[in-house]
Amino acid sequence: MNPAVWLIGAGPGDPELLTLKAVKALARADVVLVDDLVDPQVLQYCPQARIVRVGKRGGCRSTPQDFIQRLMLRYARQGLRVARLKGGDPCIFGRGGEEAQWLTDRGVACEIVNGITAGLAAASASGIPLTQRGLAQGVTLITAHSQDGSTPDWSGLARSGTTLVVYMGVAKVNDMSSQLLAAGMAADTPVAMIERASLPGQRLCPSTLADMARDAEAFQLRSPAVLVIGQVAACRVLGIADAPAEAAPPLRRLA
Amino acid sequence: MNPAVWLIGAGPGDPELLTLKAVKALARADVVLVDDLVDPQVLQYCPQARIVRVGKRGGCRSTPQDFIQRLMLRYARQGLRVARLKGGDPCIFGRGGEEAQWLTDRGVACEIVNGITAGLAAASASGIPLTQRGLAQGVTLITAHSQDGSTPDWSGLARSGTTLVVYMGVAKVNDMSSQLLAAGMAADTPVAMIERASLPGQRLCPSTLADMARDAEAFQLRSPAVLVIGQVAACRVLGIADAPAEAAPPLRRLA
Prior knowledge:
The first copy, chain A, contains 7 helices and 10 strands. Chain A has helices at residues 20-28, 65-77, 96-105, 118-126, 154-159, 173-182, 212-219, and strands spanning 5-9, 31-34, 50-53, 82-86, 110-113, 138-143, 163-167, 190-195, 203-208, 225-229. In chain A, the strands form 2 sheets. In chain A, strands 3-2-4-1-5 form a 5-stranded parallel beta sheet, sandwiched between helices. The radius of gyration of chain A is 19 Å and the shape is elongated. The termini of chain A are far apart. Strand 6 of chain A pairs antiparallel with strand 6 of chain B, so a sheet runs across the interface.
């Protein structure tokens, strides 16, 4: 049975980071519902499809989740092949699971097509090896604020020995820094704050746990950005120099 | 400047989970060094290249890391374009960072091409939403045993509120279960053990923290497998039934 809805991860921005599976699904889609964080270049792979934008634009509120789900259901019941295109991976802070569950409960067959999640792409493009032996036991992907209002257990995370990769954290840099310091993480723990991961104009602001709020402000760090906290954040295994705050050099690309 | 060496993530197995960037790099490579965990189908994208297998085969010891690095250096100095193909993502337990650092230190330009890491692919293919709101604060990727002999801080991880995704954990199921129980994680915490993620014959063994060792044995769980520990492990957002232990149904695929 073919799925009626593909929940597709568009990756971090660079259209070359789409998977072959995503490109094939996009080429077959009749209608594509697109989130804001998806780079417009990705849409080159579905010129035949009707494009429906469902993200925030120009300060407007984002399309209500319930409306998006009902729209997908309506299209699927019309017999259309629906692609739901999300930034990064659909199930890493992308609500892909909720949408799949809602549609599955209503008899609509879904398939989840993985994407490269922004945290991993940001680190690789910056030469930061997230799980480097001797420096990290693994890697934890978190958001600084969850949509149910709860906050992560920073104390457990500080003790875990894993590299912390924080999504959607720009507005919460100060809180995060305070909580992790209070949990006993060293003030000089390296931090790398990466803006526009994988896209031209990617910038990296190096810092430490104690200074990250001040440094982010001086750097004028803007969303979307990924924050890497842990010993590996000081590594630059590709020998790429950090971006100066006043410049935005193009990303080194596969020519 | 073009890189002399691409460190490429081949993804979890399904060749359609390669990125466009990986496919382009493979098509340009003169020589491809391949790890064992890479599915042979992936090599269809580099028919022009010389293939050098550097993984474990038939119980032999794996090729020493130092030898692999010197081989890449030699090829790069001969002016050849070298692709180093690793399972999953090159920097998630893949030593991609170490290889990039070693080559960069010797003046060889490298580029890291992300791949879909096995933990995320295993979960998505099973309908397990790793960061589902209300159930998880995020997700932690770890190995059960690191190569420097250290073990994760299970107590910190148990408290973190994140879903745990354990790589290379089949031989350590018993240890892990004991440590997490001792750290206070609930005995009935859902567990999903996923064998051959994304490949035909993928199997899922559902269990709990207390019973995972016994269940893995009854299921005859074999490496490579990914273990998901946390409330989300009980979710099946795609409505896919778990594989019975005696059968190995084909993965539901994009036709």
